[in-house]
Design a protein that fits this description.
mainly alpha; 3 helices; 74% helix
Length: 111
Amino acid sequence: MAIFQKAVGAIHRAVGAVVASVIVAVPGIVLACPVCLSGRDDETQLAFRVSTAAMTFLPFLLVGGLLLWLRKRFRAIAAEEERMASERSAHSMDPVGAPPVIQPVIQQVIR
């Protein structure tokens, strides 16, 4: 049984080598799209290249745009939280140290 498995493995390797050699030697056989090369004029070829480039780069542009938007949004949220924290700390105590609820009472007493 082991001899049979070795023979099958050798056959698979040989077939793989032949297929790879044919692919490298005869590129016309492995054309991805026979329609893409049917238009021989420059305008058609340019249209195929531009549309291929657009379909290639569009996902990268969309993901990049989303990441930039998220970065901007997170920075805006952080700035708002920082602003609110500074307002809270500025208004939480008067110079005497009284909490905001008692401040009106203290102001009346001082007058």
